[in-house]
Amino acid sequence: VKSGMPRPRNLAAAVAQAFTVMDVVTIPMGLQMGTDSTPGDEGDYTMWGAVYDHLSPAVYWRTAENYQPQRLSLADLDLREGAPRRYLQLNSTALTWFADASPALLP
Which of 17, 35, 68, 69 lies at a 20 to 30 A Cα distance from 101? Predict the structure, then answer.
């Protein structure tokens, strides 16, 4: 898949291409019910996927419940020894699930 894509022209295109490649191996929710999990468990679909930017250290991800790509820049974290630990729930309701397109409307 990747070999058939043009060279990305910017970071946004590169991340989009990475998610496109991920789509090839993603198992959608409901496609294969109960194939690799016990009743009541999760695990028979792709629950989340991540793309790592090694040049401007960041992680992008999306979940089965929120396909809107999210980003966390490592520059926003205090990675010093002894810094308070923080965590992020990947399905947090504080994360947007859509981008409001109304500001892009043209006259």
Answer: 17
